[in-house]
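Protocol step 4 of 6: structure prediction from sequence.
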Amino acid sequence: MTPSARFARVGVVVGLALLLASGRAVAQVEFGAPRNDGARIEQALQALRQGRDVDANLAALKESIERSRDPAAVAQQIGSVLLVDGRFALAADFLALARARRPEDGQLALLLGRAQAQLHQFAPAIEQLEAAERLLPAGPRPQLHQFLAISWMGLQRFDEAEQRARRAVDDAASWNAALPAGRAPLDVVDFELTRAQVLHAAVRFDDALALLVLLSTRAKEPLDRSKIELLSAKILDTRGDVEGAARAFAVARAATPQRVEPLYEEATFCIRRQRHAEAKPLLEQVVALEPDHEGAWFNLARLLPRLGDAAGGKKAAERYAAVHAAKLADDERMTELRRALDAKK
């Protein structure tokens, strides 16, 4: 495998790892203090989720930060909510604003590192996550080690990645052992999956599949079974076992039929293998579940004309362009907001 091909494959593996790791929410955020314009912030964030009046609502968030007695706290609250919502670029910008004002805040470093890892900004993510490790009180930190594992994997530093993945598993078990009665435990299988992803990226396919077989005997929840089969499918596809991969994709999809990731991953697998008629309904299910899924619209725009639906391809291309333009506009608006807030320092 050439270095460029290996780097491209690692990028795919890391993307899947981030999708699997991003399901757990950060700490619950409340906007309770009147001076922080709690209700106004919640309204602006809700409007951003719905794509309404983006400029006006970013301006409202900016104003709330500027006039607050504690701008860092408000920026952290906003960034935390955006992180949970999956708006990683906006989240990283708000969290960076807060972090600049609170350089000794370990929780902020952890949140910013997580957002940067989701954006594939792996070196900055490692810097923030390692700072969090120094600043936070001693104790089990499974998610910190998990995102460090993913970030080292993104840089193709597989030894460091596996060490962190193992620590994430150990810390998850320690966390559960110390958990008070009545509290929901962490899903250790989820952290084990990160280690399997590292093994996959390091081209240790046999080790990765052996671990996944072991995890399949422990998985109790449909979501865990879906994740295990999805990663198994990716590894089998990489090894050239097309029919084995197809079976694993189908099991992953059946375990969680309303989950977008298995549908989209199977669709792209079908496209790579020239199984276009099979890819079409999968992509249509993706956009039904997630109407602004940029990748699904892009692939539909390319696929439908090949299946004789030129009009459908044109509509999909228009939809892709609209979704893509909205994301670019978000980036430009946030750049303007960041400059305005930086000028107030």
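Step 5 (inspection) to follow. The longest helix spans residues 310-343.
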